[in-house]
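INTERNAL AUDIT FORM
Audit reference: QA-55
Scope: verify that the stored structure record matches its stored sequence.
Auditor: D.O.
Record contents follow.
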Amino acid sequence: MAELTAAVPKVRLPAVSGFMYASKQRDLESAIKNQCSSNNSPSRARAVLLPQGPFEHTSNISGALYSQLEVPRKCILLGESHARSRLRWSLVSQGEFRTPLGDVPIDVEMTKRLSELTPHFKEDPFMQRGEHAIEVQLPYLQTLGPSDLTIVPIIVNSNRIQEWEDVASAIKQVIDESDEPVLFICSTNLAQFAQQITIQNQNSMVLEYIKHTQFEDFCQYLQVEDISLGGLAVLGTFMQFNRCLGVSNIEVIAQGTSADFGGDPHSATGYASVRVE
């Protein structure tokens, strides 16, 4: 892993608190508990795909999955870069991520092991300061997970399919080696910046490819169709991870668009929550 020449901040401060989710602890906890209320007993999953948008647009989609999810102590989170990172794979290996609900420590051992398994990861926590894809998942994990929750935060800015496969394989190996459950969380949106009806149709196609782990067909579809995706690298890595698992039980829990919740129907964004057993 590349060495930093500048001092690494011990705490990564929230970047979108008060913008994408409530900035006050009581309001945030109340919102999440309301979104995630369910009579069903939570159960473990191996991986999940969740939206990265503002809570006002995504809470119903995220809450539908989180309400049935047993959050383990260890979570690996992958999000797409929105700050145009110069690094293809940014990994933070020390310190804590802060939200209005408190601080979440980095899992030092897992990050170290990941960096040993693939050369793609580079240490640069400064590049994650303005990123929101991972941050918007943390309040859910803090509210629903154990008090000693730890995370591995990864930001990706790579369009290289081989790297998606390499990283997916490394994450699976780290999870397999762990003596306790580890959840892989992919945080991204789906189709975006089009009419609502177009987004709905594109979302349905993308989710079909995800459900059946049809990665090559997914890539071909993107070449043929005029579609903008919120996080191609995250979706690609998620699909490659599922292929590594060899799973067949991939369930779409909820889906929708930003226009369903008051957003612009002429420039909508697609969301979905997907669970992998």
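Auditor finding: record pair retrieved intact. The mean pLDDT is 92.
Action required: none
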